[in-house]
Structures are given as structure tokens and as C-alpha cells.
Specification:
The protein has one domain: Undecaprenyl pyrophosphate synthetase. It has ten helices and six strands; from the N terminus they run βααβαααβααβααββα. The chain has helices at residues 13-19, 24-44, 57-61, 65-83, 87-90, 101-104, 107-120, 136-153, 161-166, 214-225, and strands at residues 5-9, 49-53, 93-98, 126-131, 178-181, 201-204. The two termini are 19 Å apart. The relative contact order is 0.19.
Length: 233
Amino acid sequence: MIPAHVVIVPDGNRRWAKKRGRPAFFGHQEGMKAMEKIADAALKLQIPYLTAWGCSVSNVTERSAAEVKFLYKIFEIYFKKLAKRKELKEKGIRVRVLGRWEEFFPEGLKKAVRKVMEDTEKNNKHHFTVLMAYDGRDEMTAAAEKLAKAAAKDKNFRVDRETLKASLWSHDLPPVDLVIRTGGEPHWSAGLMMWDVAESQLYFTETLWPDFSPKEFDKALQAYSKTERRLGR
């Protein structure tokens, strides 16, 4: 059984680089190559929704200026390269970026992100979403503010599961079936998609992200397929 929506939390870039006596930049660069391989593997497996953690708000506000500058650079290179891929049109892939990236990213990177989003907004067969300058608490806060404004305008407005979901940044994404976190530290990250992961299956691996291969990805999917999802029943 193939999950409809897989989320990847690619942890371990800096530790991978440190083990090799290299700067963090090297790990981020190799991590980006790993993401390209896993995205391609998900496409071949016909997984309709793939979401990847790109960076949190704290990643771009609390790390060194040099590391953040490098992250922005490799992100810009990645999105420009992604925009040129023929598969986006041929396979009907829609690319979305969720988070506060408009607030924090430099103009060149924002331009690259906007282009690939605009070019693919009408595609609807496969969906690749990247969380950038993202924090799940920000997403829930924004949803609460949107609901409060709606309630202030309409005294009959009712907050329920449907209206809350419709107010999220991820409003047009389905529930997450499987979350894969690499790096050997089984913890959550900044309230990652806290509404959408309510019934998700979690898969943790010791493998540091740059070493996470399509073979390991398949292993995670196999574990998912062998587990009965009771969903509270």
C-alpha cells in the first residue's frame, strides 16, 4: 500500500558534514542532492503528495549569517533548477512553498520560488510542497486569526474541523499518512503540520539525511504498508 501523502523531515546535514571534517555548508549541499533523489523516487512510485521540510524560522534567524546566506544560495539554485525540469509539465506536478518565506528570504530567492509556483499552479496530478521559514505554531496562529476575523464579521460563523482546515496554509493538502524523519533524533520539529499529522504513522531512522537513499525510502514505505492503521478504532 502506497501512502497518499508523505512528509520528509531531513535531519542530519550538519552532523554528516562534521563527521567528515567538513563545514556545515557541505552537508546542506549534499542534503539537497538527496532531496532530488527522493523526490524522483516518490514520483516513480506515483505518490501523489510529497511534502519536504526545507527550513524553519529558527533556521534562518538563529544560525550564523554565513550559514544562512549559503542556505539561501543553495535554495535559489534548487528552485531555479526545479523550474527547468520538463517533468513538472509532463507529469502534472504542482510545486508549493508554505511558510513565512516571503518575510525572510532575499529577493532573488523569492523570485525563484514564485516562478516555479506560478508555472505549476494549474498542475494537479502530483504535488510537491516545501516548508520554508516554517513553524507549525505560526500556521495555527494564522488560522486562528483568520477564523477570529470571520467570526467578527458574521455572528453565525461556526468554527469546526472543516473551517479550521480551510484556514490553514495547508488547506488544499490531504491528511499526512506517513512522516519520515532522518538523523536518529525522534522528536518533532516546531509543531510540524500539527493538524494534518493527527493520524500519521511515524518512521524514524538513524541515517543522516545526505545518506538517505531511495532504497531507504522504500524501506520506510514497506514499514508503512505492513502496519495496520487503526486510526483510533
